[in-house]
Amino acid sequence: MVSEKKIVILDTNVLVTGVQWKIDIFLELEKVCDFAYQLAVLQGTINELKKIQAEQRGKFRDAAKLALLLLKKKKVRVLPEEGYVDALLVNHSRKGDVILTQDKELKKKLVKPYFTLRQKKYVVKVE
């Protein structure tokens, strides 16, 4: 029986934070995922990263720029949905997709399991 790949969706803040903390979230996900998965981001996340890159200064701008480059290099699938990113992520979570986020408020609304960063070093699954 071939199981369907789960979708793991990366949130904006985890991409920026991952870059700032020098965490290879792609490698960390390989370690923690005990299932077949495909990485994805929402179009809204791409828009948020571009906005940070255009409007912020210093380390935030650099982190957003590097996050966009990593997404392109790793060929992360972009889900073309527009709208309020957190609400879209909650909907995806309810459908069974797994979200990787650092957002405290968003975590309260997500269906478990989801992923988050711990100790500025690694990705953990919250069940």
Give a written overview of the molecule.
The protein is built from 6 helices and 6 strands. It has helices spanning 12-20, 25-32, 43-55, 58-73, 85-94, 104-109, and strands at 6-10, 37-42, 77-79, 98-100, 114-118, 122-126. Helix 1 packs across helix 4 (58-73) and helix 3 runs antiparallel to helix 4 (58-73). Helix content is 49%, strand content 21%. The strands form 2 sheets. Strands 3-2-1-4 form a 4-stranded parallel beta sheet. Strands 5-6 form a two-stranded antiparallel sheet. The two termini are 25 Å apart. With 127 residues, it is α/β, with parallel strands linked by helices. The chain has one domain (6-126): 5'-nuclease (Rossmann fold). It is globular.
Task: Please report which band the strand proportion falls in: under 5%, 5-15%, 15-25%, 25-35%, 35-45% or over 45%.
Answer: 15-25%
Report the average pLDDT across residues: 94
What is Rg? Answer: 14 Å
Number of β-strand runs? 6
Distance between the termini: 25 Å
What is the molecular shape?
A: globular
Number of helices: 6
The biggest beta sheet reads: 4 strands, parallel
Structural class: alpha/beta
Helix content range: 40-55%
Q: Sketch the topology as an H/E string, one letter per element.
A: EHHEHHEHEHEE
Q: Which topology does CATH recognise?
A: Rossmann fold
- What topology, given as strand order, has the largest sheet? 3-2-1-4
Provide the CATH architecture: 3-Layer(aba) Sandwich
